[in-house]
Design brief:
The protein has 278 residues and is mainly α. The chain has one domain. The protein is globular and about 70 Å long.
Length: 278
């Protein structure tokens, strides 16, 4: 005897899966994209002010390590997601304002490669954050340790602990004993360079959006296949991903703190310069 499937039951199931998908994507990507947006605004302000004072060409060359990390972020995820890199230049200023580029091709029918467009487009955020974390551990050691993050809490608890850890690491940089160390100044220079170029160009955003649609489809499919087992199963998987990304979250928030401080210094200097001219 066959069992009739109620249309309303199917609609409710799909709606629950879609709602869960939205919650998970917001939990996973919301903090990172929000911080990246703030960092983009800060970097644009610092870049415009610094270029005005130092000259555009001088500023480009001074911060060129950040451009290279930016392009390597694109290239790394091209490799991870099976895209073919057809042309790449880590640093090569062009007349149109382009500082570097990575050109790639992929199979549009391949869901995995299509999903990769999101991570390729946002690659500078992920790699830039990872590089800052590695530099902090290598150059500053215990001064950058912040506070431990408890992997056993829920996603919201983990994110709050990430914020605490990042702020503690940033506060540790204010230790006067660090000012006499060459390691501190090398770290500060590289963080400013990298932070200045954790930005997404219009082509980056367009490519990331294409991948985002594939990412939504993949997460929704996962939820459609697993929600019947109980929502907690899918939520636990999402929280595990959040806990696995705490280092990058903390590093990105740390970069925001550094660039916020730098933007404040640049603002004060610009203000004083204007008053002196006046």
């Amino acid at each position: 005897m066959s069992v009739a499937i109620q249309p309303q039951g199917v609609i409710d199931y799909v709606a629950a899966s879609a709602l869960l998908t939205c919650r998970q994507l917001f939990m996973l990507l919301g903090p990172v994209l929000g911080l990246a947006f703030v960092l983009h605004a800060l970097s644009s302000y610092v870049r415009s002010r610094a270029a005005r004072g130092l000259g555009v060409d001088a500023y480009m060359w001074i911060t060129s390590p950040g451009v290279m990390v930016h392009e390597l972020g694109h290239a790394l995820f091209c490799v991870v997601f099976g895209h073919k890199i057809t042309k790449m230049k880590l640093f090569g200023p062009q007349a149109d304002g382009t500082l570097g580029y990575v050109e790639h091709s992929y199979n549009h029918r391949n869901l995995y490669q299509s999903l990769g467009n999101f991570f390729i487009g946002t690659g500078p955020i992920w790699l830039g954050s990872a590089v800052v974390y590695v530099l902090s551990r290598f150059l500053l050691g215990a001064h950058a340790s912040g506070s431990a993050v408890n992997a056993g809490g829920g996603a919201l608890d983990v994110l709050l602990q990430v914020a605490s850890s990042a702020f503690r690491s940033f506060a540790a940089l204010l230790d006067p004993s660090l000012m006499g160390s060459w390691r501190f100044w090398v770290f500060a220079y590289l963080v400013v360079c990298i932070g200045s170029h954790i930005t997404l160009s219009p082509p980056d955003i367009r490519g990331a959006f294409k991948g985002f649609l594939a990412l939504v489809a993949a997460v929704l499919l996962f939820n459609l296949l697993t929600v019947w087992m109980g929502e907690s199963y899918s939520v636990r998987a999402c929280e595990a991903l959040v806990r696995g990304s705490v280092v990058l979250y903390a590093a990105l928030l740390f970069v925001v703190c550094v660039n916020l401080t730098l933007a404040g210094v640049v603002f004060v200097l610009s203000f004083l310069r204007g008053r002196l001219r006046g």
